[in-house]
Amino acid sequence: MINMKYLMSLIIFIIVIFTINSQVVFIEKNPHLADFRVKVTDNRHIADLFVHVTTNQHRAKRVDGLWYYTNNRHRADIVIYFENNRHRADIVIYFVNYPSMAGWKSNKPKY
């Protein structure tokens, strides 16, 4: 059975991804202060989202999986914590080399 807290976190994450103007991401060191726990995988087959990190904030606008990192928490749309344990993560991501490869594994999030 799916943990209710996990399900609610995932639903909120999906809503945030589809409603924000850009995907400006701040990396938090404390998991309790993050909006979402993210697990990075080397296996593209188990990823929920393919992510490409861009150095241009304007390129990240309205593109799922195209992230721009900021050092300022207050400028971030999403605050994440990189989780080591896949089972504690809200979402599993796989980093891709090209912006055109970024996005959800399927046309719609599976959750």
| Overall number of structural domains | 1
Helix-strand topology string: HEEEEEEE
Strand order of the largest sheet: 1-4-3-6-2-5
Question: Roughly how many Å apart are the termini?
Answer: 14 Å
Largest pleated sheet = 6 strands, parallel, barrel
Give the overall silhouette: globular
Poorly predicted runs of 5 or more residues = none
Question: Rounded to an integer, what's the Rg over CA atoms?
Answer: 13 Å
The count of β-strands is 7
Question: Which range best describes the helical content: under 10%, 10-25%, 25-40%, 40-55%, 55-70% or over 70%?
Answer: 10-25%
Mean model confidence by pLDDT = 83
Beta content: 25-35%
Structural class: alpha/beta
Structure, explained:
- By secondary structure, this protein is an alpha/beta fold.
- It has one domain.
- It is built from 1 helix and 7 strands.
- The protein has one helix spanning 4-19; strands at 24-27, 36-40, 49-53, 66-69, 78-82, 91-95, 103-104.
- It has a 6-stranded parallel beta barrel with strand order 1-4-3-6-2-5.
- The mean pLDDT is 83.
